[in-house]
Design goal:
mainly alpha; globular; 3 helices; 0% strand
């Protein structure tokens, strides 16, 4: 295996991983927008309304689609599945940690 091919494989892994993170992050924001709730976003702060959540969820979904498409173009589709799932799981772990531990510190 050449150094360039090895680097492409590593880059493809992290690109797919990022796609999983962004895809997983889009879900709670799109659901919050659909139910007209409030959730933290970079667009509106701690008490972001439905429009900010829709925009942030759509931004994350677009980023996920672009990163996933790039990972699939540069590598084998079967090799992209695990990094996508790991990225989604990493985001899920972060969300759980934030909700159960970090968000309670200021309360």
């Amino acid at each position: 295996m050449t150094a360039r091919r090895a680097a492409t494989g590593a880059g493809s892994f992290w690109t797919a991983f990022g796609g999983g993170v962004f895809g997983a992050n889009s879900v709670p924001h799109l659901v919050t927008a659909a139910r007209r709730g409030r959730l933290l976003t970079p667009y509106g702060g701690q008490d972001s309304g439905p429009v900010a959540n829709l925009a942030w969820g759509a931004t994350n979904l677009a980023a996920a689609a672009l990163l996933t498409a790039r990972a699939l173009r540069t590598g084998d589709a079967r090799r992209a599945v695990l990094p996508l799932l790991l990225g989604a799981a990493a985001f899920g772990g972060w969300a759980l940690l934030y909700e159960k531990v970090l968000s309670k510190r200021g309360a």
